Amino acid sequence: MNAAVFSLLAILIVALAVGVVLNRNPVRSAMCLVGTLFLLAVMFVFLDAHLVAVLQIVVYTGAIMVLFLFVIMLLNLQTEAAEQSPAPMRALVGVCGFAFMGILGGALLVADGTDKFSAPVPAGFGTSVAVSERLFTHFLLPFEITSLLLLVAIVGAVVVAKKKLE
Amino acid sequence: MIGTNAILALAVVLFGIGALGVMIRRNVIVIFMCIELMLNAANLAFVAFARALHSMDGQVIVFFVMTVAAAEAAVGLAIIIALFRNRETIDVGELNLMRW
Fold first, then answer.
1. How confident is the model over A43-97, as pLDDT tens digits?
2. Structural domain contains residue B100
3. Which of A50, A60, A131 to mutate to test the interface with B (most CBs of B within 10 A)?
4. Residue A146: its chain B contacts at CB < 8 A?
5. What is the mean pLDDT of chain A?
6. The domain containing residue B82 runs over which residues?
7. Burial letters for B36-70: b for 16+ Cβ neighbours within 10 Å, e otherwise?
8. Per the domain annotation, does B30 fall within a domain?
9. Considering the entire predicted model, what is its pTM?
10. Which residues of chain A neighbour B94 with C-beta distances below 8 Å?
11. All structural domains of chain A
12. Is B97 part of a structural domain of the chain?
């Protein structure tokens, strides 16, 4: 992946992420997040994570964001008014956020790691065969616990969201 | 050529934008969407390291993070629906029953 492609992708991702945060209309925020997640899937393809990229599109944009949009439209949320927290608080939050990003970014600048990023990956890296080879041997216990977690989440969501029986 | 640090810098910026969104916005659903943005920033960091170390473990962890995010989104949105049914508002400024 050369620098031009990465820069273009990065600028688009950051622009859409800022759109998620700053949009007054929640539906537009959700659509900006869908765009961000889709472009992140493109980035995953460039990083040789093919199964993860497909799962990102199918699960994250195709299921989770659709759930978000269902709830937004179920609650019939309108464009919100511009009333917010007071300006000094927002300025302080902004300064803290940018300081946090600056500290982590500075750590990245002085980090000197020699890794195998520019070396070509082994054959089959990032395919479903490679993921399942790790998932069902080394990560078997987390896999089973995750299925239990999903069961609990489904039952919990139904119980919390349903109307009380009179 | 792009190295690991560039991808990690993008992940840091995404995480920072998500964190700023959680702190600034007052709509509960938009806060939830910014949390999802932070989770995706972590996913990007995992995938970058998986690529840098030629190890599949990073991508398997991303698999788990996505699953947990799906479960959390389901339960969280159910809570938001129940909240809206009882309070008719999703403005976190007005949901202050537990403040001192």
1. 999 999 999 999 999 999 999 999 999 999 988 877 776 556 667 877 888 888 8
2. no
3. A60
4. 64, 67-68
5. 88
6. 4-87
7. bbbbbbbbbbbbbbbbbebebebbbbbbbbbbebb
8. yes
9. 0.91
10. none
11. 3-80+123-161 (1.20.120.1200)
12. no
